[in-house]
Specification:
With 202 residues, this protein is of the alpha/beta class.
Length: 202
C-alpha cells in the first residue's frame, strides 16, 4: 500500500509539473512579428500550412530578402505549384524560390536549411512558421546554426483558438502535442551534443 501511495504521489507530481510547464510554454508563444521592417539574406518557410507559404511569398515580393527557401517540400512538388497556393504571389518571384526536399520534421528542417544557408554564404534568415511552432523551431535552428542571425516571423492560423485555449479540445490537443515535442527536442539535445551543428556544416 505504501508503495502504491508513493507511486500515485509521483504521478500526481509529474502531472502537475507537466501542466505547469504547458501553461508556461503557451504563455511564451510570440504575440507579434519581430522586427517587421528588417531585411535578411533569406526568408525561410517551414511547410505545414498555407498561411506560412502565403506570408513567405508576401515577404519576398516586398523584398524583405532576395531569396525564399522552403523547407520540407514533398518530392515532385514544383515552385509553380506552391505559387498557385498564394494568389498574392507574383509569377516573377519564382526565380528567387528554392525548395528543400530532405526534411520530414523540424529537426530536419533546421539541418536542411543550415546546409543550404551556410553553403550559400548567408548570414541571416527570417524564419516563418506558426506561432505555436516557433519555440521548437527556434530551438532547433539556433542549435543547428548558432552563427546565423535568426528573426522569428510567426503566422497566426485562424483555426487556432488562442484566447482561453484550454476550453477548446482541438487547440488544447495541438498545444499539448507541441509541448511534448518541444520536451523531446530538449531531451534529445542533451544526448546529441553539438552534432547537429557539425552535421549541418559537413
Amino acid at each position: 500500500m505504501a508503495r502504491l501511495t508513493w507511486l500515485l504521489a509521483v504521478l500526481v507530481g509529474l502531472a502537475a509539473a507537466w501542466t505547469g510547464g504547458l501553461a508556461g510554454f503557451t504563455s511564451g508563444f510570440p504575440r507579434a512579428i519581430a522586427e517587421p521592417g528588417a531585411t535578411t539574406d533569406v526568408i525561410v518557410v517551414l511547410t505545414g500550412g498555407s498561411e506560412r507559404l502565403k506570408e513567405g511569398f508576401r515577404l519576398l515580393a516586398e523584398q524583405k530578402a532576395k531569396k525564399l527557401f522552403i523547407s520540407g517540400v514533398y518530392r515532385g512538388v514544383e515552385v509553380e505549384q506552391l505559387l498557385g497556393l498564394s494568389r498574392a504571389a507574383p509569377d516573377n518571384i519564382s526565380c528567387c524560390v528554392v525548395l528543400g526536399h530532405a526534411a520530414s520534421d523540424t529537426r530536419g528542417n533546421a539541418t536542411e536549411t543550415a546546409r543550404w544557408v551556410l553553403d550559400q554564404g548567408h548570414a541571416s534568415i527570417r524564419l516563418v512558421t506558426a506561432d505555436y511552432h516557433m519555440p521548437r523551431s527556434l530551438f532547433e535552428f539556433r542549435r543547428t546554426m548558432p552563427q546565423i542571425r535568426i528573426i522569428p516571423h510567426p503566422v497566426f492560423p485562424k483555426s487556432v483558438r488562442r484566447e482561453n485555449w484550454w476550453r477548446y479540445l482541438g487547440t488544447s490537443q495541438l498545444y499539448a502535442e507541441e509541448f511534448n515535442k518541444y520536451l523531446i527536442a530538449r531531451l534529445w539535445a542533451l544526448f546529441d551534443g553539438n552534432s547537429a551543428a557539425k552535421s549541418a556544416a559537413d
